[in-house]
Automatic annotation (TrEMBL):
It comes from the Bacteria. GO terms for cellular component: endospore-forming forespore. This is Phosphotransferase. It comes from Candidatus Enterocloster faecavium. Pfam families: APH. Residues 174-265 form the Aminoglycoside phosphotransferase domain.
């Protein structure tokens, strides 16, 4: 084992019984429970913010989060001899949420709702520097993405001798861009003008997917809050739910069940439902492929990129049916 990790480990109690590599860190078994030691590159201010939130959040039965562990000196950061900084957190040796299991997906959605409910109990503090924990508003983000789509489309239009990927983009662009335009308009209506503030901002996990939901026998542990921010909580639900829907071919029955599982633990307002619909309506994966193409070397386009565009086209009918059946639009 690298000596610098040992130097950090030695600053904590109790002593580790066993240590193994995992999730880009060191997972440690101690006499009092599991821990994970990670290199830390963020600011002290950010670390203190996460620690305060995780220690303040009111957790309901069945839900756990990975609290930070202070070292022997009572500090959140431990520094090795070469200056590398580390943090230690509680850990849960459970498996990640299985997106192939519909029942587990629904259970995870209900536990996500409990997390959101708990995050709403945390009082936002001025010393957190709100500017650092606010993300780009969704309406502005989607408008920016649409400008990027238009820029890429115009570039391809002006080309001669288009590649197979570029021909696929030109053929598929009208339908996907129309959805992108409608989603951006809906988000603008919800978040600007008279509707501003209709969708309240709360603390969000910020990077919620199956990898951050560890399913224990009697609990679900939500981990890795390094992208936690003040925003719209529906973005967490969308991120997790979209991955499940893609895995299940946009199955309407499962989509309704996941939403019901979430609502059973935390009611969803009409405005929040519209935000969720807008996020699902926006062709995020299509935008990602186009944006990646535009910002990389166009002399060689991986065949995989063309396959992904074609796959998105093939999924459109099922995706459109899901949007209509689940959201009525």
């Amino acid at each position: 084992m690298n000596d610098r990790y040992m130097e950090a480990l030695e600053q904590y109690e109790p002593e580790a019984v066993s240590v193994r590599r995992g999730r880009g860190a060191w997972i440690c078994e101690t006499e009092t429970g599991w821990r994970i030691l990670k290199e830390y590159r963020g600011t002290v201010k950010r670390l203190e913010f996460e620690n305060q939130v995780l220690n303040t959040i009111l957790l309901e039965p069945g839900l756990q989060v990975d609290h930070y562990i202070c070292n022997r000196d009572g500090n959140l950061l431990s520094i090795a001899g070469d200056g590398t900084r580390y943090v230690m957190k509680e850990w849960y040796p459970d498996r990640e949420c299985d997106l192939k299991n519909p029942e587990e997906v629904c259970l995870a959605a209900s536990r996500l709702a409990l997390l959101h409910k708990g995050l709403r109990t945390v009082e936002v503090r001025e010393e957190w520097n709100l500017g650092s924990i606010l993300t780009e508003p969704l309406n502005k983000e989607l408008k920016r993405h649409n400008r990027e789509l238009l820029r890429a489309r115009n570039y391809i239009r002006g080309k001669r001798g288009r590649t197979g990927f570029e021909l696929c983009v030109i053929a598929s662009y009208p339908e996907f861009y129309e959805q992108a335009r409608r989603a951006a308009e809906l988000m603008e209506e919800l978040m600007a003008g008279d509707q501003a503030g209709a969708v309240p901002l709360y603390l969000c996990h910020g990077d919620l997917d199956q990898h951050h939901l560890l399913m224990g026998k009697n609990h679900t542990a939500v981990v890795d809050f390094n992208r936690m921010h003040l925003g719209i909580q529906m973005s967490d639900l969308y991120r997790f739910m979209r991955k499940a829907m893609e895995k299940h071919g946009w199955d309407v029955k499962l989509g309704r069940s996941v939403l019901e599982a979430y609502r059973s633990a935390l009611p969803v307002t009409e405005e929040e439902q519209k935000v969720l619909y807008g996020l699902f309506l926006y062709p995020e994966k299509y935008w990602k492929q186009i944006n990646f193409y535009y910002n990389t070397n166009k002399a060689w386009i991986p065949a995989r990129s063309t396959e992904k565009i074609l796959a998105l086209q093939e999924q459109q009918e099922a995706r459109n049916h899901f949007l209509k059946a689940v959201f009525g639009s």
